[in-house]
Amino acid sequence: MKRGRMIKWKRSLDDLLGDKRESRFQGVDPRKGWEFRGVHRAIICGKVGQAPVQKILRNGRTVTIFTVGTGGMFDQRIIGSKDLPKPAQWHRIAVHNDSLGAYAVQQLAKSSSVYVEGDIEIRVYNDSISGEVKNIPEICVRRDGMSTSNTPTPRPFHYL
């Protein structure tokens, strides 16, 4: 690319973004509408570490919470290798759909394989013991509908 084109492209980008990049409002502006805020999706394929547990919230809804591990020992099966295996990455999954939560409690057990798609959200709460504000990243499944299987035999992966 020629230098003149790159300078022209940079100028047009500056004109598009404006001089005040930091002061741009993220969210809903009644005059402009929605602005792009990003996509926060995750696809996790791994083994269930903690069996699903259902909790009832104050508003009466149920949330199913479990953990999924990715990587780790089952990722490196080289016999005779002196390298230590990578530690497993643990992901906290929160299912906010009642039917999918019931399916997870019935079908998922520890060390079963699972495929999860959901939004990455950070839950903020105050720790009652230390008084600190803590942030917990979660993969939240809020999709409507239930995953069904057409085959009578059990599948190797459970889809949520």
Explain how this protein is built:
With 160 residues, the chain is α+β, with helices and mostly antiparallel strands. It has one domain (40-159): Nucleic acid-binding proteins (OB fold (Dihydrolipoamide Acetyltransferase, E2P), Beta Barrel), CATH 2.40.50.140. Helices cover 16% and strands 38% of the residues. The strands form 2 sheets. It has a 5-stranded mixed barrel with strand order 3-4-5-7-6.
Q: Which residue ranges are poorly predicted, with pLDDT under 50 across at least 5 consecutive positions?
A: 6-10, 20-27, 145-154
Largest sheet, strands/sense/barrel: 5 strands, mixed, barrel
CATH topology heading:
OB fold (Dihydrolipoamide Acetyltransferase, E2P)
- The total beta strand count reads 8
**What portion of the residues fall into strands of 2 or more residues?**
35-45%
Which features would summarize this protein structure in a list?
single chain; 160 residues; alpha+beta; OB fold (Dihydrolipoamide Acetyltransferase, E2P); 5-stranded mixed β-barrel; two-stranded antiparallel sheet; 2 helices; 8 strands; 16% helix; 38% strand
Q: Short summary of the structure?
A:
It is built from two helices and eight strands; from the N terminus they run αβββββαβββ. The chain has helices spanning 3-17, 98-107, and strands spanning 28-29, 33-34, 41-56, 62-70, 89-95, 113-126, 133-141, 158-159. The protein has a five-stranded mixed β-barrel with strand order 3-4-5-7-6. It has a two-stranded antiparallel sheet with strand order 1-2.
